[in-house]
Amino acid sequence: QVQLVESGGGLVQAGGSLRLSCTASRSIFSINYMAWYRQAPGKQRELVANLSNGGYVNYADSVKGRFTFSRDNAKNTVYLQMNSLKPEDTGVYYCYARVPGNFASWGQGTQVTVSS
What we know:
By secondary structure, the protein is mainly β.
């Protein structure tokens, strides 16, 4: 299995930027699938972006062109660079990983608040 530790959330004005980090307890090369999810107050958790082991990145339509999912293999860390933030991007952001054997893990979540 894998443990995930997130950081980088905070309060930002609309139009601003934040970068979230998610550090894994094992090599990213050994992880089949990683993703960022978010959950706004009163809403279901939704997929923001995902990264397959083959390196392909997929984004939710609502964040395309504004968010970028990247990785630093040497640091076992993935990032979510969020630009042109909107109030509707507010929520708790979670890192998710799935390893061989279909073991899935979630990070503890980090709060992102975008003020108008």
